[in-house]
Specification:
By secondary structure, this protein is α+β, with helices and mostly antiparallel strands. The chain contains 16 helices and 43 strands. The strands form 10 sheets. Strands 18, 19, 22, 23, 24, 25, 28, 29, 30, 31 and 32 form an 11-stranded mixed β-sheet that branches. Strands 12-11-14-9-17 form a 5-stranded antiparallel β-sheet. α8 packs across α9. The longest helix is centred in the middle third of the chain and has 24 residues. The two termini are 26 Å apart. The relative contact order is 0.09.
Length: 856
């Protein structure tokens, strides 16, 4: 028996994160004969270094033997001190009386302790600045911590070494409501004697250009800011104040969309007369311990091929559309530079990046002649290709231009340059492999959609002049996201931002979060974008089973439903959504009118989502023991009745005669009694559309589940396996390594769709993933967090086999099926310790099983 995944608030070893409310979780693996936890004991100790220390010390919390300790969410009410390391242990006794124990730690940040450091800001407006302070340290402390924040984005160096391994801190959040402090363990960076600390600042999302059509600058502030406290043991050694120096930064230019220019020849000298203001960011919220997971380098890619285009460009192909940047070992002479320009696709064998619209997506490094390992600091790119140039600065009076020089050799590019994938620090928990390589590529493309777009905020796309937290995209993909990766902490932060934005919108949810509050992206309350406010937290609860987190997110969930309720009641109380702007089935192909809107009645979709969200509130309220549960249950029933009367004929057929219309009715449970007939109509509609889908953002995640639910699994697999437009594998056949924004963002001849708005890394249609886990491999949660599951695999000979593994909150599930040579199917399942599963085989056999391995 082994204890794994010891987490506090769904994070392993949280250092300086928002820690309240405090909740612990763990899983038991390699359990052998043991089936379930009989009891557990949780203990918390303050500032102990070793296990032996724990023995002699009094715990600040000791649960004693608890027979109902919830391993998914063991919440503890204990007062914690700021800036303090806590050790914790969990001891599990199984039904076999076997015992196992393990230790871990968490550490608090500043919590509600007042800051001794001051917010400081260079008076002169710049794109980048360096703030420096020298200090003396006697070397006496055992450990050192840095608590800080910098705005827009920052990196901090102590004696030339970077604090922490995260980038683009403090990340992207609703700065106008709250700021986030990071905590770094800098024990190894300090030395006895003279030391220096440098804070490098850049524009980021806070100050730099953000939004399409040119966007907006200085959205949250027009200056760069920093606040810091460096502690050695209990002593605050250094803190920010106006005695810090302002240095010239080698970063001449930076922003998220356009990239960075780094001039290594620029000495980091003190700017004479530069003044620091003691000023806190004016339009911003208070500073809190962080919610955001750090943005880290998660994977490295070597160059797959160096391409030479007919017009003479050199283009590095990394083989995967990814988000991050390119790092290299620079060995060129002073005054020369390397310029990299990002792109997602080649056109006619030439470099192309017009689909990134106004985003320049460049990185220019000007060398001082010294060998250096080089990377950008305050930007990132969504790319597969990089045009790579060696340039030389040419000065003509005031005029400085760049002249292209002779390129490096293929060998030099290949050995000196690599792509680094950046994203928030969460990991994969779901794997599916089938006997069809193209389907496997599709699964990988959806995974990469998530990897590339979950950089602190779930964005629509990571490459063009957008990269915004569009709530609709996030909503439709959230179920797949929760299957693929371990997401609770990531979404906790997104929902924190969302609730803040809702607080000034009477509960409505903006179309993008963080909300830009400017231009077109200032709109809110559109279906099904705003429904992210309810659906995302609900998916998080269903997948990870944390009631503590559900309770935290519940007020925002309820606020959105209440907003709609007030609106519809003011319009007569028909329990239908009767107006407003709705994206609805965005980008569906079923509308004869040109444009991005689908044919399914947007007010039907909006009312259906109103029903779904209200029902979720009723369920969530019941789980949390809130007295309003029956009220919302009743409201949900009334909404359903109203939808039935308004949008279905007497036979129960949906008046929106589209694939999406039927799929919503079936999956949302609008027509339980006539679902089968509607499913048959859906089947026919797909067949009549030449066996192809024509759904958009709303219908796509629901289509295959609706067909499967109504006994039309075969045609659902047909849709999965279609290779011609419109289908998932159409893009795979054209070489996609991520999911595209449109079903035909690239045309069959390899040319970009001339309609515009074509990102090649837009995860929405990757939402097919949830169906692959839930119906093809057949693992669905029957109780939140997969404490109970239904395993109902749906084999299909065309896929030959499926191997699926899921590291759920409750432990590891596996579902395998395989067609043998004689045409029979073998099934293998694994159910984790502490869980129960209802196994349902296609031949009608069912069995409820406890932890263990099962073969049929
Ligand atoms: C984004 C979408 C988004 C949509 C809504 C687009 O520009 O990329 O994915 O949800 O706008 O208008």
């Amino acid at each position: 028996m082994k204890l794994k995944n010891l987490r506090v608030n769904n994070i392993e070893h949280p250092l300086g994160f928002q820690i309240m409310p405090l909740s612990f979780s763990w899983t038991v693996e390699e359990a052998g004969e043991a089936k379930e936890q009989q009891s557990a004991r949780i203990r918390i100790y303050e500032n102990v270094e070793t296990e032996a220390d724990m023995e002699g010390k009094k715990a600040v919390y000791d649960s004693g033997e608890v027979t109902d300790a919830d391993s998914l969410d063991y919440s503890v009410n204990v007062e914690l001190k700021p800036r303090t390391r806590y050790q914790w242990s969990v001891e599990v006794t199984a039904d076999t009386k076997e015992q196992v124990s393990a230790e871990s730690w968490f550490e608090t940040g500043k919590a509600d302790e007042a800051w001794e450091g001051q917010w400081i800001a260079p008076e002169q407006q710049t794109s980048s600045a360096i703030l420096r302070k020298a200090f003396v340290y006697d070397g006496s402390a055992k450990s050192a911590r840095l608590y800080m924040c910098g705005l827009g984005v920052y990196e901090c160096y102590i004696n030339g070494e970077k604090a922490g391994d995260e980038y683009l801190a403090p990340g992207y959040h609703s700065y106008d409501f709250h700021l986030q402090a990071q905590t770094y363990d800098v024990s190894a960076l300090l030395k006895e004697g003279e030391n220096e600390i440098e804070i490098w600042l850049g524009e980021g999302w806070f100050k730099g250009r953000l939004g399409f059509d040119g966007g907006f600058t200085d959205i949250y502030g027009d200056k760069l800011y920093a606040i810091a406290e460096l502690y050695a043991g209990e002593e605050c050694l250094v803190k920010t104040d106006t005695t810090w120096e302002v240095l010239e930064s080698p970063i001449r230019f930076n922003n998220i969309y356009d990239g960075e220019v780094y001039d290594a020849r620029q000495q980091k000298c003190r700017i004479a007369g530069a003044k620091l203001l003691q000023e806190s960011p004016k339009e911003c919220g208070e500073i809190f311990d962080r919610y955001s997971l750090p943005i880290k380098a998660k994977e490295i890619f070597s160059i797959k091929e160096v391409l030479h285009t007919p017009s003479g460009d050199t283009v590095l192909d990394f083989g995967q559309n990814l988000t991050g940047w390119v790092e290299f070992d620079c060995r060129i002479s002073a005054g020369k530079g390397i310029r990299l320009t990002a792109s997602e696709i080649m056109q006619d064998q030439e470099f192309y990046h017009e689909n990134l619209r106004t985003a320049k997506t460049e990185f220019l490094y000007l060398s001082d002649g010294k060998e250096a390992h080089v990377r950008p600091h305050f930007t990132f790119y969504g790319f597969r290709y990089m045009k790579a140039e060696v340039v030389q600065e040419v000065r003509n009076g005031e005029d400085v231009t760049l002249r292209c020089e002779e390129s490096l050799s293929d060998e030099e590019w290949k050995t000196q340059f690599q792509a680094v994938h950046l994203r928030s620090d969460f990991d994969q928990i779901g794997w599916i492999e089938t006997g069809d390589q193209k389907v496997n590529q599709l699964f990988s493309n959806a995974l990469w959609g998530q990897k590339g777009n979950f950089l602190d905020v779930p964005t629509d796309c990571p490459q063009r002049d957008e990269r915004l937290g569009w709530t609709g995209d996030a909503q439709v993909f959230s179920e797949t996201a929760c299957f693929n990766m371990y997401m609770p902490a990531f979404y906790r932060k997104y929902m924190w931002d969302m609730r803040a934005e809702q607080s000034i919108l009477d509960g409505a949810v903006p179309n993008v979060v963080p909300w830009l509050k400017r231009g077109m992206v200032a709109e809110y309350g559109a279906c099904p974008w705003a429904d992210a406010g309810v659906i995302i937290p609900w998916n998080v609860y269903c997948h990870y089973g944390s009631k503590t987190l559900l309770a935290e997110m519940y007020p925002g969930m309820k606020a959105w439903v209440d907003y709609q309720r007030r609106q519809e009641e003011a319009e007569g109380g028909l329990h239908l959504i009767k107006g407003g702007f709705h994206f609805a089935d965005w980008l569906a192909l079923d509308n004869e009118q040109p444009g991005p809107f689908g044919a399914t009645d947007p007010l039907y979709i909006a009312s259906a989502y109103y029903f779904r969200c209200t029902k979720i509130i009723a369920d969530a309220a019941e789980i949390l023991g809130y007295e309003e549960a029956p009220e919302y249950k009743k409201l949900a029933e009334e909404i359903k009745k109203a939808i039935r009367a308004a949008y279905f004929d007497e036979s129960g057929a949906c008046c929106s005669k589209t694939q999406t219309g039927a799929a919503i009715a079936i999956v949302f449970g609008l027509i339980e009694d006539t679902a089968q007939e509607e499913g048959d109509r859906l089947h026919q509609r797909v067949a009549e559309n030449n066996g192809h889908l024509n759904t958009g953002f709303v219908g796509t995640p629901l289509l295959c589940p609706a067909l499967t639910k109504t006994g039309h699994y075969k045609i659902a697999v047909d849709l999965l396996l279609n290779e011609d437009y419109p289908s998932w594998l159409y893009s795979v056949n054209l070489g996609a390594t991520t999911i595209w924004e449109r079903w035909n963002s690239v045309l069959p001849d390899g040319k970009m769709n001339p309609e515009g708005m074509n990102s090649l890394n837009h995860y929405s249609y990757g939402s097919i993933g949830a169906w692959m886990y839930g119906d093809v491999a057949g693992i669905r949660e029957a109780e939140p967090g997969f404490r109970k599951a239904v395993i109902k695999p749906n084999p299909d000979a065309r896929l030959k086999y499926v191997d699926c593994k899921m590291e759920t909150a409750a432990g590891i599930y596996e579902s395998h099926w395989k067609y043998e040579e004689d045409g029979s199917v073998t099934y293998r399942f694994h159910v984790p310790f502490g869980a129960k599963a209802l196994i349902c085989l296609p031949d009608g056999r069912t069995e409820t099983v406890a932890a263990g391995d099962y073969t049929y």
